[in-house]
Amino acid sequence: MAKNKEPRPTYAISVVGLSGTEKEKGNCGVGKSCLCNRYVHPSADCYYSEHTSVLSTIDFGGRVVNNDHFLYWGEVLHRGDDGLECRIQVIEQTEFIDDQTFLPHRSTNLQPYTKRAANTKLQSAEKLMYICTDQLGLEQDFDQKQMPDGKLNIDGFVLCLDVSKGCNRKFDDQMKFVHSLYSQISKAKKPIIIAATKCDECVEQYLREVQTFVTGKKNLMLVETSARASVNVELCFNALIQQMDKTRGKPKIISYLEAYKSQRQLVVSVSDKFEKLIVQTVRDYHTSWRIVSNKLKSHPDYEEYINLEGTKKARNTFSKHIEQLRQEHIKRRREDYLTSLPKILNKLLSNLEEIETLSWTEAQSLMKSRPEFQYYFIELEQTPWYETDHLDKTDDRRVPFDILKTMEGERIYQNHVQHLISEKRRLEMKEKFKKTLERVHFISPGQPWEEVMCFVMEDEAYKYITESDRRDVYSRHQQEIVERAKEEFQEMLFEHAELFYDLDLNATPSCDKMSEIHAVLNEEPRYRALQKLATDRESLLLKHIGFVYHPTKETCLSGTACIDLKVEQVLANRLVQLDHGRSNIYYNSANIDKVNLCLVGREGLAQELANEIRAQSTDDEYTLDGKIYELDLLPVDVNSGMLLNHSWISNFKPHGFFCVFSSIESLNYIGDRVSRIRAEIAQSRRDRYSQPVPFILILANQRDSVCKNMPILRHQGQQLANKLQCTFVDIPSGTFPRKFNESQIKQALRAVLEGLKHNFDMMSPMPSIKDLSETDLRIVMCAMCGDPFRVDLILSPFLDSHSCSAGQPGQCNTLILDKIIGDRRRRIQVTVLSYHSSIGIRKDELVHGYILVYSAKRKSSMAMQRAFLAEVQDVIPVQLVAITDSQADFFENEAIKELMTEGEHIATEITAKFTALYSLSQYHRQTEVFTPFFNEVLEKKNNIESFFMFDNSRDGTGTSEDVFPQSPHRHSPAYQYYPDSEDDGEGPPPYSPIGDDVQLLPNPSERKYRIDLEGNEYPVHSTPAGDHERNHKVPPPVKPKPNVLPKPNVKKLDPNLLRTIEAGMRTSRWTRGPMLGHGDDLEASDNYAEPADTLLKSKGFSDDIYAVPEDAQSRSGKIRNSFGVLALHGDEENGFDSMSKSQGGRRPSKYKHRSKILFSKTKAYHRRVHSDVSDDESGPATQKKKKGRGNRGSEEDPLLSPVDPWKGGIDNPAITSDPEQDDKKMKKKKPPKTKEPKKTKSTKTTKPLYPPTRRNWDSNYFGVPLQNLVTPDRPIPLFIEKCVDYIELTGLTTEGLYRVSGNKTDQDNIQKQFDLDHSVDLIVMDVAVNAVAGALKAFFADLPDPLIPYSLHPELVEAAKIVDHYERLQVLKEIVRKFPPVNYEVFKYVISHLNRVSQHSKTTLMTADNLSICFWPTLMRPDFENKDTLSTTKLNQSVIESFIQQCQYFFYGGEITEPSSAEGTPPPHGHGLESLLALQLPPPLQPQQIQHPLPPEPLI
Q: According to the UniProt record, where is the region Disordered (predicted)?
């Protein structure tokens, strides 16, 4: 063994074995080359299984073989177990055969192989390392390494024996050769290892013989190897190295099976890792191997697999994965196609009769004939579909048609046919079952299915369909009968109109009123029909009540059938057409000669339109409808930045815009630009009276060819025009070569001129009194919403007249008639309204006559007419109109006959006109049908106006809203219009009795002066009254004192007006009596008198139910009036009674007191409810009420009382119709004097629900989020602390605290002062405690979000339903902990305050129950339009009550307390649960106004 002193010793190993010609070794070698290859180059990619020994002479003489019969395989760096390294040089002794002679090549060493292989010293100059057979002759293409020093000394031998079956070689011959070879190499005294090669193809007998051979030799070791399987190759050489290096221990030999098993485990593990790596990396089957290999070449799992198995196997693994991905993609696409196929068949082949007898092939042909076929299917030129590029078109959802030719496609078609058959049968059975249910008459609305199913279980259809279908059919049946029952219930409510319309607008029905309503309705079968749907029934009732007292056209129960909406539509269309028929009215009024037009378009379209207009003009003058206009055109591209610069608008001053488009893209550009242009125009025009500039949208023609998108363009253009509220000009029918037609340009120009005319009318100043005096009569026509006749029927008598014209701008339901009435032509203003809108003007507006329309086919229509007519003053003429189809209905239909007869009887009783209009007749189309009525109205006009003026002067505060702000006659009082009034900017309130758009004439709220009976102008000082003048609401029935003021300058009043009024008053003498103070001398609250005690007084005795406060009487001598001093409770003969006698000898009353039918209908309800109440029962209660609450201030709401207002009511209409009896009774009874309660402030009890802003000033404190008002040091807002401190200091003895409303002016003043100075002292301000309480509640109402978050409302409701008292409180305690920290602290503070207030309930009468009624809507801010909210009202109130009662338990860790007797028992005027009924009204009730019931004043 050669000894080398280098740190890394080098050993040379010679691999020997059977070699020679094919005759000697057979067809293949014993595996020497493969063994050397695997050891020197272990990587699978560097392993070559074929190494030939048959070479050409050239290859044999090359530098690799170098004319030697041995190969130099190279050098291997070996590291032992001890960490020492050595270098191993491998030599293979073989014998090369000439490919020509098939004999061994001649070499320098001519010894036979056995002797030559045993040589230990080898020499070959410049011999290169051998790699593979392909290297021979191409050495420059491979790595070239020379054998070191050209010589080697062999240190050990590896003797190879092939234990496989071999190829034409006998194993015995190989053993003989091995014996001979071993005997030669053993002489060299070098270590020898026997390597059994090809053990993966091992023959057991051969292996045993080799083992026997090894066993017979001393120090000879056998290693079982397989170069192809890479098993024990390295072990073989390592064992030899250990023998060559004496310092190493004896090697451990592992059998082939054990080594093979370990090797396979390693291969499996590495293969799994590589496959997972491929799956994770490759998701798209289009990925190439080159991209993946470059991406993974540095990954350890990839390198290990390549080294162990090779690149070829790795690529095969990748290819298999790619194919798997592709097949999965094909499978998904096929499943998607097959899944969508049933839906496609449902659309294309949905008719069972058409396909039931067709084969699948015929069905395919039928589908091809459908126009939608191309939308669902695609026919490919190549098949199958998954071999085409359609496979990768994932965005194309069309199904390849060749899928239909598969078995799955045919199966789906057959299933589709069967599904249609079964579905047809199922639908037939469902319909049959539906008819079965219709025959079961005992099914009631809301009845559960479980109660009904037992009666229909034997039905054939029941047995056929599934349970879900049964429930579905029953649900539809229930829905139908429920809807029908609800409609009948709503109609029943309309039929009981007298039951609901006896209170004023914006009132809140008391508990007794609600009890009365329920008692009457409970007798109705239609009421009991909804017994199982009590919640829905209650919601419908509350919705109806809410609408009755707070009517608007937006909330009309008839929806789109509302008369107000229909009248507006008809008048808008018909009156516009009438205006078009007249000759150039707007040309003369607006005096337009020059029109500046801006043309907006895209890609030169605007310039083309300008050229077309110029081509139709002469010197820029355009003729339209006989008038010449000078046109100034400015074409602008829609993308131009000039459009967004308002400077050009000021310079050019466009009168209108022509916006032209020819594509969807240009239309979108225009839609985006129009809003911006409008904003720039608004910015450039600072004048608040400026009106919007008209925009005209014009569709250009496609002159090249017929555009397929034209219908789409037309539709989109019309939609955009509707959205932008502008005119759309379409392409006229027919064909023409140009993009723009002359008719289009004329239509667009007319639209601009019409817009300018409209703006001119709107911009014109308010007409003077003289101009407006041309309207002689004001007539209101009323009809009921939902009546079964067309609105045109009742409007046609006016619209078909040539003398009909539109009303004032903004009066969309008013028309003007010019008719000869009496001795000359008169202007008659006719306003057509619904009954619910008319109620708001019945008392408060000057109306000369009513035309009351009802349908003779509908009982509720007659009931509504009766209810409305009953409250109309009998000085106003009435025309009753019955509507039916024809005269034959009277004789053929008993119901129609009854209603028409009733209407005629009522008209006879009240001396009114009665007529019938027939929809199938033409007579009603003549205006003369109402001429007699107009004559009667004209005759009574002066009396009507005199009574209206006197009635207003008695009320003192005028009307809540004047629908007619000007006098209809030059001799009648009129209002002056002040455009600079401070209230101009205020919009109408959100809950107007007649809606925002039904206003007949401009709102008079801007005027600051009123005119008294002598023609004096006097200022209006009462702020609450001003608030009501700015909205449509009727004030509460607390009548204010008459405003009798000193006579100021009257120079602005028409002298004729004075003479007219004085002439009407000469017949009566006004007796001087106690006077009232001037508005400047009194506070706002002093404008109202104190209500006298009227509980024992009959309504018929006196209209004057108010006593004068003592302080007012003490100052009465200081005030003067031109009429003298009005007597408030003296002899009425000197008052209106004298005036009445001079005007007809009868005191004006209401029509219900002149008609037995109207009066009996009204009284019938109340007698039915109170017939079981005896005098003994009612007497003590009345006496107790009188004693305890007789001197209550005007702050209390008289409509919230449980006291029965009908126990002292009118029993005979003759009582009020006899003025002499009235005078005698009034002389006998003097109203008692009442003391003014301490610090009471008058207020109005009705406010709009959730107004846009409750304040009329800007505030940085009120209405901002709660978290902005607190700090860690001050968790409670300062305003809340101040209010609570003031209330607890001064108000814990105030009766009705938080229930009685405070003066709104004082409430606003408190907040305004606090806005100015947060340190304001409420004690110094000396305000009423109820005003402070109202300001505190208003603070919470103005918060952006309620104090109790909406998200917790459902949890609170569910907690309130818990029956167990202690469990309920525990759950509520957990919920309150979920409050946001800021809300929790404020809520805790407020509830603690309310708890302290409830402890004084003996004096305040405010128990925890009453406080919760007042406060829960403020704290929770519910949505009363939601039916669920209405049904949980009581639960919400009980939650707040629990918080108040158990305050110590919830917030301070106290124990649960039992409610005290004072807490548990309501005050004497409460009615337990019934007191909550007034709280369940839908909007627009305002949470701050929900109060405990109080005694009402008798209705007048």
A: 957-1002, 1015-1051, 1131-1254
